Structure formats: C-alpha cells, structure tokens
Amino acid sequence: MRIISENQIIETVAELVQEANINLPEDVKQALVKALEEETNPVGKEILRQLVENYKLAEQTQLPLCQDTGLAIFFVELGQDVFIEGDLVEAINQGVRLGYEAGFLRKSVCDPFTRINTGDNTPAFIHLDLVKGDKLKIKFMAKGGGSENMSRATMLTPAQGWKGIKEFVLKRIAEAGPNPCPPIIVGIGIGGTFDYAPILAKKALFRPLTLEHWDSELAAKEKELLTAINELGIGPMGLGGKITCLGVKIEKSPCHIASLPLAVNIQCHSSRRKEVEI
C-alpha cells in the first residue's frame, strides 16, 4: 500500500492548472504550424499566424494562452494500491483554488440561476476511475465556455448507424460555425448511456493529435470525419478556409440494443491539457 498525502495532491494540482493554461501541448503546437503551412485563404492564414505567435508569447511571458481559463476538468486514475491521506476531491479543489489565484487565472464558475461567481473556479469537475497499481494519474483540461456551449448529445436509433452519426457531427460543426473559435478539435463519444457518451467525448479530447486510435476501423472513421469537417469551408475563426478542424478523436462503449447514444464535445484551438503521475 502506497500513501499519498493530501498536501502533495494540492501542490501538484496548483502547479498543473497554471502550466496547462500557459503552455500549449506540443502536438497542438505542431498542428497549428502545419495548418499555417496548408491554409490557402489569406485571412485564415493570417489568423493561424497570430495563433502560432500567441502560443509563443504565452510561453515567453508566462501569461495565459486565453482570457477564458475555463472550467477545471479532471480525469483521475486512482491505483487500487494507493491510500489517500486526506480527502482526494477536496485536495483537487483546493489545488484549483490556489493555482487559479496564484496564476491570476480568470474564475469562470457561477451559479446557474443567480450567475453569482463562486470566486475561486471551483467546484472542479472530476471523473474518477479505479485502476490497478500504486499510482495516481491526474489529467487536467481547462475547458472554455465558447467551445463547451457548442457541444451536443443525442440518442440516435440503431438503424441510423454510422451514416446518422456522421450527419449529426457535420450538422453540429456547421451550426457551431465560428463560435468555438476554430480551428477546433472534436471529441466524439459513441455508445454507453445518455450520460456516459458525453464523458467519452470529453475523454477523447485528451488523446494527442499525433496518436491514432488503436482500433484501425475507428482510426479510419476519425480521418473520414476530419476530411468532411474541413470540406465545410468554415476555416480559422469562421472566416473561410481549408482548416476548420485540427483533429477528430472517437471513443466508444457498448450500449443497449435499442439505443445509439452520441455526444460531440468541441474543443477550441487552445486545447489546454496536461497530466501528471504521482
């Protein structure tokens, strides 16, 4: 049995949320540079040039990549041979409080009715999985409101199959237009239940753009959707062009014989994610 203290988690999370909001993942940086090379629309090309310049400036100045420093999303893998000395959930929330305060990160969490801000960007939204081993893996994503607002979930009929899935995804991206700040990354959850499909979709956004799905059939479907989305011509920031989407990631789960749950979780170009293992 391995013991991990509450204080260790607090310190780790506080540092994690600050770093993720400042330093774009390497695969996303590479994708933006590649998009800049491939974009043919002059306006779109200029936007991509500014996005590349922005992530470089964020690194140099140690200032946030975007003013919307997002909801604090966590996917936590807790080893069954780990004992948390303290409260895991409270430790994560305390880490968010300290990290957002120390990093001068905008607090965006509020009551859904009164709209009164909680003042410290908590509660964090935590998805916990119990796994084998004696490690604690914490995956963090700063999820902005613009892209989150454009995300959708639905229940298709089994007869609609892949054709229905593709139609729904393309319609959602077309309707979203410039709102999620393209070029976007699209996470798709297929199967499970009504509530689980969106979790799959968000989980998919953690897979690096350079990492293809292990299932060759799903990898082919990801490429098919990526091509179709970019053929919509929405372009960077919705002003037209070849590059609307940097990548499509799919996760699937078995589901009920009478159902076909589907969720689309859109991420903006500033895909701020980072993970650590304790």
Structure, described:
With 278 residues, the chain is an alpha/beta fold. It folds into 2 domains: 2-22 and 65-143, no CATH class; 146-272, no CATH class. It is 40% helix and 26% strand. The protein has helices at residues 6-22, 26-38, 42-61, 88-102, 145-149, 161-176, 196-204, 216-230, and strands at 2-5, 71-79, 82-85, 125-131, 136-143, 152-156, 184-192, 245-255, 260-267, 272-277. The strands form 3 sheets. It has a 4-stranded mixed beta sheet with strand order 4-2-5-10. A 4-stranded mixed beta sheet has the order 6-9-7-8. It starts with a strand and ends with a strand. The mean pLDDT is 97.
Compact description:
The chain is an alpha/beta fold. Helix content is 40%, strand content 26%.
**Percent in helix:** 25-40%
Total number of helical segments?
Answer: 8
Supply the number of structural domains: 2
Strand content: 25-35%
Instruction: Provide mean pLDDT, rounded.
Output: 97
Q: How far from one another are the termini? A: 14 Å
Would you report the number of β strands? 10
Shape: globular
Strand order of the largest sheet: 4-2-5-10
Profile the largest sheet: 4 strands, mixed
Q: Which runs of at least 5 residues are low in confidence (pLDDT < 50)?
A: none
Radius of gyration: 19 Å
Oligomeric composition of the shown chains: single chain
Helix-strand category: alpha/beta
The SSE order reads EHHHEEHEEHEHEHHEEE
